[in-house]
Specification:
Blueprint: E1 3-10, E2 13-20, H1 26-42, H2 50-56, E3 62-63, H3 66-81, H4 91-97, H5 109-116, E4 125-127, E5 132-134, H6 147-162, E6 167-171, E7 175-187, E8 193-197, E9 203-208, E10 219-234, E11 239-242, E12 245-248, E13 263-268, H7 271-281, H8 286-297, E14 303-307, E15 312-316
Parallel strand pairs: 8-15
Antiparallel strand pairs: 1-2, 2-6, 3-5, 4-5, 6-7, 7-10, 8-9, 10-13, 11-12, 13-14, 14-15
Helix pairs in contact: 1-6, 6-7
Keywords: FAD, Flavoprotein, Lipoprotein, Magnesium, Metal-binding, Transferase
Catalytic activity: L-threonyl-[protein] + FAD = FMN-L-threonyl-[protein] + AMP + H(+)
Pfam families: ApbE
Length: about 325
């Protein structure tokens, strides 16, 4: 089958849509229009979005629509399952670490301890009856870890309504949705020796990776997915350099420090859920990774892997995708 492709820049990423060539180019406008609508209404970085209004009126209730309530309710549920290591009110810690500064300085333990008190998704009050939301004074929600995936999931639903049965959407590499079966490559984030373990923690493979240049990566695994999304979190290209030390952008809401794992990959039906889960799992030990994946598997079909700070790879229910 022949395909056509369009790439547009949204959510600070190149969003690539590949569909069969039988469809008119106007379909791209329809699909990208859904992404633009989500960006306008629910992105915390968009002025006057519902989330922006909640942030600017922290400490007070803000009128919202049903979709905002639905998004926040699902996030809070997953945050509970993940054990609080995913928290959309993490923004004060991100600012403290200097991700919006030209010359970041390592924060003190006292500063981290003080700012951590502002972080807490359980303090978000959702009044479904009156359709309003409130966060505590000086809290701030950040949508960067889920809003792009939420948007492309809505777009994929529209594809199915149109009748598109063979397509793939790549949202900047961090989230991929495949309609019909597609093969994708999970890239290795580091040049390192890897020890791959199964669910029981038993080593099953040891490999020596060969990093060959700035724009070339050693393939970690090739997986085939159909009507599924693949979400990944790593900090290879998003970090601060302070005193010649790298500090990644995924910060633990419990410790206040950037997580040290190298990569998480998650396969789910929902790209929205997948991005949330991959971020939350990034802060976990291998033991907690398996515990949380077991809990999640009770309410959804899920597979994934964790590469810890030492380069060890832990797989959960991944064999069927190889």
């Amino acid at each position: 089958m022949m395909y056509k492709v369009q790439v547009r820049f949204l959510f600070h990423s190149d969003i690539k849509i590949k569909i069969p060539e039988i469809y008119d180019d106007s379909v791209f406008d329809r699909l990208f229009g859904i992404l633009e609508d989500v960006n306008e209404k629910y992105n915390s970085y968009t002025k006057n979005s519902y989330i922006d209004k909640i942030n600017k009126n922290n400490g007070h209730f803000v009128k919202v629509n049903d979709e905002t309530i639905n998004i926040l309710s699902k996030i809070i549920h997953l945050s509970n399952v993940i054990g609080g290591e995913y928290d959309i009110t993490i923004m004060p810690l991100i600012r403290l670490w200097g991700f919006y500064k030209q010359n970041p300085i390592l924060p003190s333990l006292e500063e981290i301890k003080k700012v951590r008190k502002l972080v807490g998704y359980k303090k978000i009050i959702i009044d479904k009856k009156k359709k309003r939301v409130k966060i505590e004074k000086n809290q701030e929600i950040i949508t960067g870890s889920f809003i792009k995936a939420y948007a492309i999931e809505k777009m994929a639903q529209e594809m199915r309504k149109i009748g598109i049965k063979d397509a793939i959407v790549n949202a900047g590499g961090s989230s991929i949705i495949a309609i019909d079966e597609w093969g994708i490559i999970a890239e290795n984030p580091e040049e390192e020796r890897e020890i791959i373990r199964n669910e029981k923690g038993i080593p099953v493979k040891i490999s020596q990776n060969k990093y060959t240049g700035d724009d070339e990566y050693n393939d970690l695994i090739e997986i085939k997915i159909k009507d599924r999304s693949y979400s990944t979190s790593n900090q290879k290209n998003t970090y601060l350099l302070i005193n010649n030390e790298k500090y990644g952008h995924i910060i633990s809401p419990k410790t206040g420090f950037p997580a040290q794992n190298k990569q998480v990959g998650v396969i789910t039906e929902s790209a929205f859920f997948g991005d949330i889960i991959s971020t939350g799992l990034y802060n976990q030990t291998s033991k907690k990774f398996y515990e949380i994946m077991e809990k999640l598997s009770e309410e959804m079909e899920i597979s994934g892997f964790l590469i810890d700070k030492d380069g060890e790879i832990f797989y959960f229910n991944m064999e069927k995708y190889f």
